[in-house]
Amino acid sequence: MLAGKTAIITGGGQGIGLAIAERFVAEGARVVLGDMNGEAVTAAATTLGDGVAVGVAGNVTSSADVDTLIATALDRFGSLDVMVNNAGITRDATMRNMPEEHFDQVMNVHLKGTWLGTRAAAAVMREQGSGAIVNMSSISGKVGNIGQTNYSAAKAGIIGLTKAAAKEVAFKGVRINAIQPGLIRTAMTEAMPQKAWDSKMAEIPMGRAGEPDEIAKVALFLASDLSSYMTGTVMEVTGGRYM
């Protein structure tokens, strides 16, 4: 479904980002992976295969680093057809105990990083008259989580950003959509205390956590022509949680 297409995936060195990259490559895409962890992203690109993947170390809060991702895609593969803004961090604490620095860090990585990636990719895509951008929000941006005023605010902001940006570039053939994952089994979520895990599981009608590839398949749908008449939408992938 992505034969001949080039995709950039931020946070692509592990977890959901790597699962998206694996799914995209399986569908014929060339991928540029961005990640703060240079060793991890290089190893991920090597695993995906020489000639179809390249890893770039960088910080999504830096416009220069984002520009480097764009330039790498264009220089190595000749196009930019899909942008997945997936990079993220958590700095959880109740509002009373959260340092201001941790609020700023999470907002910068998630919201500013997504804005920089969307802006840079859209600039290329609007000139070529086509492209798909997929922004990673979270169900936390819909309902809010205790201990995540920073994360929930950033993820809610990504929804507003996605809708506003989608309206700006739709007439140029560029589509921008968002995904709101629920509880997905990754190294980050499995590090949660068992009590917190059990509490979240109790809220899921399907009775299980999701797997990274279940997010990747939705990202593939939004990146491909299967969603050709969709823009500004938010797709919940939660096992029915908070429906």
TrEMBL record:
One of its GO terms (biological process) is fatty acid elongation. One of its GO terms (molecular function) is oxidoreductase activity, acting on the CH-OH group of donors, NAD or NADP as acceptor. Keywords: Oxidoreductase. Pfam families: adh_short_C2. Residues 5-187 form the Ketoreductase domain. InterPro entries: KR_dom, NAD(P)-bd_dom_sf, Sc_DH/Rdtase_CS, SDR_fam. Belongs to the short-chain dehydrogenases/reductases (SDR) family. This is 3-oxoacyl-ACP reductase FabG. It comes from Gordonia iterans. The lineage of its organism: Bacteria, Bacillati, Actinomycetota, Actinomycetes, Mycobacteriales.
